[in-house]
Amino acid sequence: MKLTVWTYEGPPHVGAMRVATGMKGLHYVLHAPQGDTYADLLFTMIERRDHRPPVTYTTFQARDLGSDTAGLFKKACQDAYDRFQPEAIIVGASCTAELIQDDPGGLAETMGLPVPVIPLELPSYQRKENFGADETFLQIVRHLAKPMPKTERVSCNIIGPTALGFRHRDDVQEITNLLYELGIEVNVTAPMGATPTGIARMGQAHFNVLLYPETGEQAARYCEKTFDQPYTKVIPIGAGATHDFIAEIRALSGSKAEIDTDRLRQSWWSRSVDSTYLTGKRVFIFGDGTHVQTAARIARDEMGFEVAGIGCYNREFARPVRALAKEYGLEALITDDYLEVERAIEELQPEMILGTQMERHIGKRLGIPCAVISAPVHVQDFPARYSPQMGFEGANVIFDTWIHPLVMGLEEHLLHMFREDFEFNDAAGPSHHGGHAPKPAEAHSNEAPAPQTQTAQSGEVIWLDQAERELKKIPFFVRGKARRNTESFAAEKGLHEISIDTLYEAKAHFAR
Q1: Are 309 and 343 in contact (CB under 8 A)?
Q2: Among all residues, which ones are annotated catalytic?
Q3: Domains along the sequence of the chain with CATH
């Protein structure tokens, strides 16, 4: 643990909060001092939840350390049960309370509460938030799930979604709909939306769908060993991965149902984008291991980007991310220091960043477009609209999310390049008000006449073939202006021929 302005992951008890807040009928009693009581801020402000998180704190103070802090914990635990009447309770300590070694689990077990009490051992100074969520969910499943006969129809559990996860709510809906199309019932979705009673029924399912390995892989492995439930390995983020996921589900379930892919627009839209705008753009990818690995495949194989850098902040996924980076001819950046990430981005100078909320800030400072693909995220990444990352609709959302920053970046570039022209200068009024109509002497056509021979001549300036071909790559609606600005630049420099170098020099000149 270290002090920092920004952090990719909180301490492990925040992961436990994410599990408890996603569930119903479960309460978390946290032994913590004043200052560690920020769950309300996390979940009601950032995620816009309409209910307070089910967390009760002991909130001991400095003066309490000389007396019975264990008694404070027992009282908080009893008060939580009396007030909320949960089906089960999880108990643990925050990073600060861990130092006083009160053993919340042992204390709670001596109280004789009439509901299951699940102790959490979360080493705050060795592990972090994702581990805390993964371990908490594992302990809940171990204590509550029971062996049961399998359901009559083929069914599965969806494992991994939590509160404060990146688009987890919408991902669950998208994958549930996809499974329904395949004729598969969802037995339990957990931890998000589950109750302790629902957790007890997890053993009824024939297999598990693991959506988020960071927060559900330990539970998936436990269920595979204990209840003979295999689990999916493909994460359905992106068009290709979704097709692979469907094939994996068919192999596990025997389903032969056809899937309607008409709603998948990402594949065609990616092919239809003007290659001079997007194809080959160098991108830097950073986030949690799962989203980074899926984003790299989409970037290279589905969008035509060049992956210039790749990395993740959760060290539990260092090995697969390093292996993937090697496949791409890169060396992975494994770090939880945002300053190290910023230095890597400055050195690589990518044309786009795919990252977290931290990389969004880094991109703003460096003037590089950024699309958020992974937690940690801020309030704008919990939209009111349906906006999944998984499945076919998720592929459509990803296309929009990644393309729009580049398109807007192009628009800003053009505005800078032609800011002296009457349409774009700062003094011009809104075009739909007609406040910037040019004087008759200023009016000229949008496109210069097409060349008749190998070179085109405008006045005393001659365009060489290579420069003329490069000019044609500029969008038609600003091509004439680019021609005039380049000719004006050449005249000022006393040049009589415009080469491709002259064109680029003019572009740089007008972009300043």
Answers
A1: no
A2: 274
A3: 12-129 (3.40.50.1980), 145-253 (3.40.50.1980), 266-414 (3.40.50.1980), 451-511 (1.10.8.550)
